[in-house]
C-alpha cells in the first residue's frame, strides 16, 4: 500500500455519510426567507394598504353631526309698533347633520397615493439591502465550516496512515528490526490527533449553530457542506441592490415634489346640511322646524410668495445629495473589488508554492518511510517528516478555502 494513498484519496473525495448536503447558494436562499428581518416585508405591505385607505377616504363623503342648545340674554326684536310678529325665543335649539364631498382637488389624492407607493418600494428595497449584506457573514461562516470539515478529513487520513504504520512498527519490534520503544512515539502522535479532532469538531458545531440561527434552518453536525468551485463574475457593471435603493429614493423625492406642486391647485367641494331646530332658517318663525342647505365652494391659493416653488427646489437638492452618495458608493465598491481581486491573485500564488512544497515533502517522506522500515531512523524522525507533510497539506487546504472565500466575497461585492 502506498504511503500517501489515504492522504491523496481524502483530499480529492469525501466518504463521510451525512444526513444532508448544503450548498452556499442554499444558505443565501434560506436566509432571505427565514431571517427575522424578512417579516418587515409583509408588515410594510400591510401598513401600505392601511395608509392607502386613509388617503382614498378623502374622496368619500365626510359626515359630521352637531347639536346645541343656547340661551341668549337678548334677541333681535322687530321695531314695528303694534306688530303681531312674536319675538324670537331666548332659548334656542339646533341639531344638524352635514355632508362634505370633495369634487376636485387637482389630482392631489392620486399624487399622495404615488408617494405611499414610492415609500413602500423604498422600505422593501432597504430590507433587501440589509439581507444582502448578510451574504458576506454567511460566506465567512460557511467557509470556516468547510475548512473545519476538510481539516477533519485530512486529520483522519493522517490518523489512518499512522495506525497502519503503527502495525508495521509493532511487527518490526516483534522481529527485532526496530527498537522496542519505536511504537511509543506513534501512539503519542495518535493521541494528539484525537485531541485535535475533538477540538475541530467542537469548533465546527459552534459555527454550524451560528449559521443555523442566521438562515433559520437547523443544520446537523453531520451535515456535509458542499465545496463547489466558485468562479468570479467578470462583468464590469455593478448590480448591487444599494444602487436600486438610491434610485428609489430619488423616485420618492419626485413623488413628493408632485404632491407639493398640487397643493396650490384649485379645490372644489360640495356641502349639504340638514337639521331640525328652533328657530330654523326662518328666524321669524318661532317654532321647531326642519331645514337644509346646499352649497359649493371653490378654493384656490393664487399667490403663496413662491413658498411652493422653494419647497420643490429644496427637495430637488436632496436628489443631488443622493447622486453624490451613489457615486461615493460606486467608488468605494470598485476600490473594494480591486482589493479583493489582488487578494485572489495573492492566494493563487500561495497555492502554486504550496503544491511545489508538498511534492518535495512527499519525496522526503518516502525516503523516511524506507529508512524507518530498515531501522536507519527512529519513529520520531519519521513523525517529524509526516507532520511536515501534514502541515503543508493543511496549509494548502486553508489557501484553497481562502481562495473560495475571496471569490465568493468578490461576487457579493460585485452584486451577484
Automatic annotation (TrEMBL):
One of its GO terms (cellular component) is efflux pump complex. GO terms for molecular function: efflux transmembrane transporter activity; porin activity. PANTHER family: OUTER MEMBRANE PROTEIN TOLC. Its main location: membrane. This is Outer membrane protein TolC. Keywords: Cell outer membrane, Membrane, Transmembrane, Transmembrane beta strand. It is found in: Cell outer membrane. InterPro entries: TolC-like.
Amino acid at each position: 500500500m502506498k504511503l500517501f494513498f489515504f492522504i491523496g484519496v481524502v483530499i480529492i473525495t469525501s466518504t463521510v455519510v451525512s444526513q444532508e448536503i448544503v450548498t452556499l447558494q442554499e444558505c443565501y436562499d434560506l436566509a432571505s426567507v427565514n431571517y427575522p428581518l424578512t417579516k418587515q416585508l409583509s408588515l410594510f405591505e400591510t401598513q401600505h394598504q392601511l395608509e392607502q385607505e386613509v388617503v382614498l377616504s378623502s374622496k368619500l363623503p365626510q359626515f359630521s353631526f352637531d347639536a346645541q342648545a343656547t340661551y341668549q340674554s337678548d334677541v333681535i326684536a322687530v321695531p314695528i309698533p303694534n306688530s303681531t310678529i312674536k319675538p324670537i325665543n331666548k332659548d334656542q335649539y339646533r341639531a344638524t347633520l352635514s355632508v362634505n364631498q370633495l369634487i376636485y382637488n387637482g389630482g392631489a389624492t392620486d399624487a399622495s397615493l404615488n408617494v405611499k407607493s414610492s415609500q413602500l418600494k423604498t422600505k422593501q428595497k432597504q430590507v433587501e439591502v440589509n439581507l444582502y449584506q448578510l451574504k458576506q457573514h454567511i460566506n465567512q461562516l460557511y467557509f470556516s465550516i468547510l475548512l473545519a470539515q476538510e481539516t477533519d478529513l485530512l486529520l483522519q487520513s493522517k490518523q489512518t496512515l499512522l495506525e497502519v504504520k503503527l502495525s508495521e512498527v509493532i511487527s518490526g519490534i516483534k522481529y527485532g528490526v526496530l527498537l522496542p520503544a519505536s511504537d511509543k512515539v506513534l501512539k503519542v502522535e495518535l493521541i494528539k490527533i484525537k485531541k485535535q479532532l475533538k477540538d475541530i469538531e467542537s469548533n465546527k458545531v459552534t459555527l454550524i449553530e451560528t449559521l443555523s440561527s442566521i438562515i433559520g434552518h437547523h443544520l446537523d453536525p453531520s451535515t456535509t457542506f458542499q465545496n463547489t468551485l466558485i468562479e468570479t463574475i467578470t462583468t464590469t457593471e455593478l448590480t448591487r441592490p444599494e444602487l436600486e435603493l438610491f434610485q428609489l429614493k430619488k423616485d420618492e423625492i419626485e413623488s413628493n415634489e408632485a404632491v407639493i406642486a398640487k397643493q396650490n391647485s384649485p379645490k372644489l367641494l360640495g356641502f349639504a346640511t340638514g337639521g331640525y331646530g328652533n328657530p330654523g332658517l326662518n328666524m321669524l318663525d318661532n317654532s321647531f322646524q326642519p331645514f337644509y342647505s346646499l352649497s359649493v365652494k371653490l378654493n384656490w391659493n393664487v399667490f403663496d410668495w413662491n413658498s411652493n416653488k422653494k419647497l420643490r427646489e429644496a427637495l430637488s437638492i436632496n436628489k443631488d445629495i443622493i447622486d453624490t452618495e451613489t457615486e461615493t458608493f460606486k467608488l468605494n465598491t470598485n476600490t473594494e473589488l480591486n482589493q479583493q481581486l489582488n487578494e485572489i491573485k495573492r492566494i493563487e500564488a500561495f497555492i502554486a508554492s504550496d503544491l511545489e512544497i508538498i511534492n518535495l515533502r512527499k519525496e522526503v517522506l518516502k525516503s523516511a518511510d524506507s529508512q524507518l522500515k530498515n531501522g536507519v531512523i527512529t519513529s520520531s524522525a519519521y513523525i517529524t517528516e509526516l507532520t511536515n507533510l501534514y502541515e503543508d497539506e493543511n496549509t494548502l487546504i486553508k489557501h484553497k478555502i481562502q481562495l473560495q472565500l475571496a471569490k465568493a466575497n468578490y461576487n457579493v461585492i460585485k452584486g451577484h
